[in-house]
UniProtKB/TrEMBL annotation:
Stored InterPro entries: Cyt_B5-like_heme/steroid-bd (IPR001199), Cyt_B5-like_heme/steroid_sf (IPR036400), MAPR/NEUFC/NENF-like (IPR050577)
Family per record: Belongs to the cytochrome b5 family. MAPR subfamily.
Keywords: Endoplasmic reticulum, Heme, Iron, Membrane, Metal-binding, Transmembrane, Transmembrane helix
Compartmental location: Endoplasmic reticulum
Listed PANTHER family: MEMBRANE-ASSOCIATED PROGESTERONE RECEPTOR COMPONENT-RELATED, NEUDESIN
Keyword Plastid: no
Record protein name field: Cytochrome b5 heme-binding domain-containing protein
Entry's Gene Ontology cellular component terms: endoplasmic reticulum; membrane
Length: 167
């Protein structure tokens, strides 16, 4: 029988032991990470919607990509928004002469020279009747490429056409 003198003394466990303090700290950090306030998700603002409309050579010319303006060009009466290709069709690009213009004749001739553009914006639209089969094929190829890659945002009509927007 054990007497009071030889009984093992009960070790007193402290709640403030180092391991308990580490575990408590870890628990508090995990709680913070789980319930911490998160900033609301902000989605990037998309481009303004483009409404299909009718253009004349005089109203199309302003869409040449200068400043923050979009870049439009016309091919056989269809106006394409080529803004995603602004580095090609906008200011400083190899096709910049076509920005805001009817590019049909130049594309058909595979020429990016200014002589291919109609100088008189009040003149009737180029009917392209003098193009040969090879030039028409070139133009068709370009038109298909634009149709696959860019949005059609309008149509091009001559000044004075009944569908022309009022100036």
């Amino acid at each position: 029988m054990a007497t009071e003198g030889n009984m093992p003394q009960a070790e007193v466990m402290s709640i403030a032991s180092p391991i308990n303090l580490i575990l408590l700290s870890l628990f508090v950090v995990l709680l913070y990470w789980h319930f911490r306030p998160t900033p609301p998700v902000v989605l990037p603002r998309g481009p303004d919607p483009i409404v299909f409309r009718t253009y004349t050579p005089k109203t199309l010319i302003e869409f040449n990509g200068e400043g923050d303006r979009p870049v439009f060009l016309a091919v056989r009466g269809r106006v394409f928004d080529v803004t995603p290709g602004k580095n090609f069709y906008g200011p400083g690009g190899p096709y910049e002469n076509f920005a805001g213009r009817d590019a049909s004749r130049g594309l058909a001739h595979q020429s990016f020279d200014e002589e291919m553009l109609t100088k008189d914006l009040s003149a009737p639209l180029d009917d392209l009747k003098d193009l040969d089969d090879e030039q028409l094929e070139n133009l068709q190829s370009w038109e298909e490429r634009f149709s696959e890659k860019y949005l059609v945002v309008g149509k091009l009509v001559a000044e004075g056409d009944p569908e022309a927007p009022a100036s």
